[in-house]
Amino acid sequence: MKIAIICYPTHGGSGVVATELGVNLAKRGHEIHFISYSSPFRLQGFQQNVYYHEVNVSAYPLFKYPPYDLSLATKIIEIVREYELDIVHAHYAIPHAISAYLAKQILHGKGPKTITTLHGTDITLVGKDASFYEAVKFSIENSDGVTAVSKYLTDRTQKEFSIKNSIKTIYNFVDTNKFNGIVSNCDTRQFKPNNEKLLIHASNFRKVKRLTDVINIFANVQKVVPSRLLLIGEGPERQAAHDLAVELGVHKDVLFLGTQDYIENLLGCADVFLLPSSEESFGLAALEAMSSETPVVGSNAGGIPEVVDHNINGFLHDVGDVKSMADSVIDLLTNDGMLNDFKKEARKAAVEKFDSHIVVPEYEKYYHDVLTF
Ligand code: GMT
C-alpha cells in the first residue's frame, strides 16, 4: 500500500507512535509518506520506502495565526496526486484529521481513504475545548476509519462526542529489540556514584503529568532508600518541580537531563519509572520503560491500567496519592526478589502484548478492512 502518515514531529507520544508505525510498515514493504512541518525526530537516517514531505506555511503579515491546516491540506492533495496514495492516516485529530477531510473534499472524494488515530489529549483535553469540539466530532465522524490507542480512549470518545461510527482500539506498541534494558552505553556511575537506587520519569512536563507529585514521591522514597531521580523532558512545569525539589532539600539528587532522542539508553538504567499523571490515554513512556525491564509506579488514571498490571509489573494508585506511590516504590527498592520479579514481568508484558510485531499487523489489517469496505 501507499500510505501518507500525518503527524507531529516532536517528542510527544503521538509523533513517536506515528513515526514507528511508518518505519515498521516501510520495512514490511509499504511505501510511506510522512507529512509534517519538520522531519519527525525518530526518523533518523535513510530508510528504504520512506519519504518525507515538509509543509510550508505562508507567513503573510495579514495572518496573525498562519493557517497550518490549509497548508497541510494542500500538501496532502499534492502528494496524493503525485504518488497515487491508498490511505491518508492522520495521527492526532487536531488539525490533521480536519486537513485530511478537506483534502478529500477538494479531490471530490476520489482520493485515498482517510483514517484518524486518536491519541489522548486530542479528545480528553484539547478536543473537549469548546473552540475545537464541533470540528473534532465532525472529523471523527467523517473519517473512513478511526482508531484509538486504548479501550479507555475509545469509550470516552464515543461517550463525550456522542460518536456513532465504530472506533477500533489498537494499542500503542514498542520495539522490544531496541528497548531491551541493556544499558552498556549508559554511564550509570554518573547517575548513581554511590550505588544509589535510580528512579526515572520522562514526559513533556505539562500539568497533566503532575511533575510535582514525581518530586514528592522521590522525597518520600529518599527518606528511606538512598536514591536519585532522573527527569527527562522539558516543559512548563519544570521550574515548579525544581523549586519543590529545592524546598524539600532533594535537588542535588534530582538530575534534569532535558529532552533526549535516545531514551532507550536511559530507561534501562533505572529501577522504577514514575507516572503519576492525572490523565493518560495509554502512557507510551511507561510501556517503553517496561520493555526496558523497568517496572512502573503511578496512577490508575485513564488507560494506564490497560498497560501496567497492578501488583504484577507495577503499582497503580489513585491520582494524587503520593504516599501510597512512594510506599510502593520503597517496597520494590527494599526487596530485591520482588524487584527482579516485577522487572521480568514488565518485560514479559511488553514482549507478549505490545511488541511492534504484534500490533503493526493490526494496523495493516485495519487498512485492508477500510479499503475493502
Ligand atoms: O502525553 C502527552 O501529553 C503527549 C501526547 C501526544 O499526543 O503526543 O500523548 C498522548 O499520546 C500518547 C501516544 O498515543 C499516549 O501514550 C499518551 O498517554 C497520551 N497522553 C495523554 O493522554 C495525556
Architecture overview:
With 373 residues, the chain is of the alpha/beta class. It has two domains: 2-173 and 356-372, Glycogen Phosphorylase B (Rossmann fold), CATH 3.40.50.2000; 188-353, Rossmann fold (3-Layer(aba) Sandwich), CATH 3.40.50. It contains 15 helices and 13 strands. It has a seven-stranded parallel β-sheet, with helices on both faces. A six-stranded parallel β-sheet has the order 10-9-8-11-12-13, sandwiched between helices. Strand 6 (145-148), helix 6 and strand 7 (168-169) form a beta-alpha-beta unit. The chain is globular and about 65 Å long. The model has no long low-confidence stretch (mean pLDDT 95). The structure holds ligand GMT. The site of ligand GMT has 20 residues, from helix 1 and helix 4.
Number of strand segments:
13
CATH class descriptor name of the largest domain: Alpha Beta
CATH architecture descriptor of the largest domain? 3-Layer(aba) Sandwich
Secondary-structure-derived class: alpha/beta
**Helix count?**
15
**Ions, cofactors, ligands: which are bound?**
ligand GMT
CA(first)-CA(last) distance: 16 Å
Shape: globular
Average pLDDT, all residues:
95
- Strand % is 15-25%
- The amount of helix comes to 40-55%
CATH superfamily of the largest domain: Glycogen Phosphorylase B
Order of helices and strands: EHEEHEHEHHEHEHEHEHEHEHEHEHHH
Task: Using the CA coordinates, give the radius of gyration.
Answer: 21 Å
Sheet with most strands: strand arrangement? 3-2-1-4-5-6-7
